[in-house]
Amino acid sequence: MGKAATEQEKLRQAKARLRRIQHFEQVTHNVSQTCRFFGVSRRQFYTWLRRYREQGLEGLKNLKSGSRRPHLATPPHIVALILRVRAERQYGPIRIGFYLQRFHQVYVSVPTIYKILKRHGVTRVSMKRYRPGPRRRRDFTVLGQSVQVDVKHLKLGGRRFYQFTAVDEATRYRVLRIYTHNSIPNAIAFMDEVRLRLPMAIQRVQTDNGNEFGTDFTWHLRDLGIAHRHIPPGCPEANGKVERSHRTDGEEFYRRTTFRTAGELAGKLRRWEHEYNHHRPHLALAGKTPAERVCELKITARTVQATA
Which of 59, 75, 256, 296 has the greatest number of CB atoms lying within 10 Å of its CB? Predict the structure, then answer.
C-alpha cells in the first residue's frame, strides 16, 4: 500500500513537471518567462526538459524540485511589500502582480504571491483569474457610447448615504458622488457632474427602473442630447459593470475608510475615484487602468479618422 502511494506521488509530481514543459512549448516559447511564472530555476527546468526528451514521462520522476532551494526564495523586503499592498488595498494575487510591476518595477509570479499570502495567514485569497461572462451583448469600443449609472445604498455610522456611480462601458472610467438623499433632483445633478468629469462625450445612459431615474430624469438627458435606456426589470446583470464596481467599492474602499462628517467622506470618495481611474490595475483591461484605456481608444479613433 505504501509503495503504491509512493508511485502515485511520483507520477503526480512528474505530471506537474510536464505541465511546466507544456507551458513553455505551447504558451510562452520562452524558458525565462515560464520559470518566472512557476517560480523554478532555469537550471532545474533545463534538467526536466532534457530528461523528458530522453525518457518521456518516466524521466520526470525521482527528481528533486529546484523551487525549494534557499537562494530562490523571495527576498524578505519583497515579501513585506506584497503583504503591505494586500493590507492597504485588499488586492488579490493577480492584481498585486500588476501593481508591483507598474509601481515598483518588480516581477513576482502570481502563484508565488498566492503562496506568500497563504503562508502569512492572509484570508480570502483566491487564485481565480478574470473570466468574462457569456458574450450576449457586443463589447463597446467607442468612448461614451454607453454609460451605466446606478446607486449604491449605504449605511455608515448610523446614517444613510447614497453613492451615485457612472461607468463608461468601453473603458470602465468612473465618476462617483455621495448624497444624503436618493432623489430625481440629485440624479439630475449627478448627471450634470458626470458630463463635466468624464473625459468623453456621452451618447447613451443606461439605468435600472428606480424612481430616481424616472420621467424628469429622462427628459433632462434628452434636453442634453443623450439617449436614456432602462434595463429590463429584475435583470441587474444588464448593468453588470456598475454593479461589479460597487462590490469593489465595498471591498477596497468602504471596508478601510473611516470618517467623521459627510464632507470628509465625499473627499475620500473623490480620492478613491482618482485611484480607481488612474492607478488601480483593472483585470478586465489586462492590467491597464481606465485612464490608460481612454488614451488607447482616443489614439485608435484618431488613427481611424486619419486613414478614412
Answer: 59
Distance, in Å, from the CA atom of 33 to the CA atom of 27, rounded to the nearest integer, reads 10
How far out from the chain centre does Cα 21 lie? 29
For Cα atoms 27, 30, 33, give the angle at the middle one, nearest 5 degrees.
Answer: 90
Can you give the pLDDT of all 308 residues of the chain as single tens digits?
A: 445 557 777 888 888 888 888 888 888 888 888 887 787 888 888 888 888 887 888 888 765 544 445 546 788 898 999 999 988 888 889 889 888 888 888 888 888 898 999 888 888 777 665 455 554 555 788 999 999 999 999 998 889 999 999 999 999 999 999 999 999 999 999 999 999 999 999 999 999 999 999 999 999 999 999 999 999 988 888 999 999 999 999 999 998 888 888 899 999 999 999 999 999 999 888 889 999 999 999 998 888 888 86
- 232 contacts 213 by C-beta, under 8 angstroms: no
Length of the chain counted residue by residue: 308
Contact 173, 199 (CB under 8 A): yes
> Alpha helix (H) ranges present in 90-214?
93-104, 110-119, 184-197
Burial class (CB in 10 A: 0-12, 13-18, 19+), 253: buried
Name residue, grid cell 436614456. 228
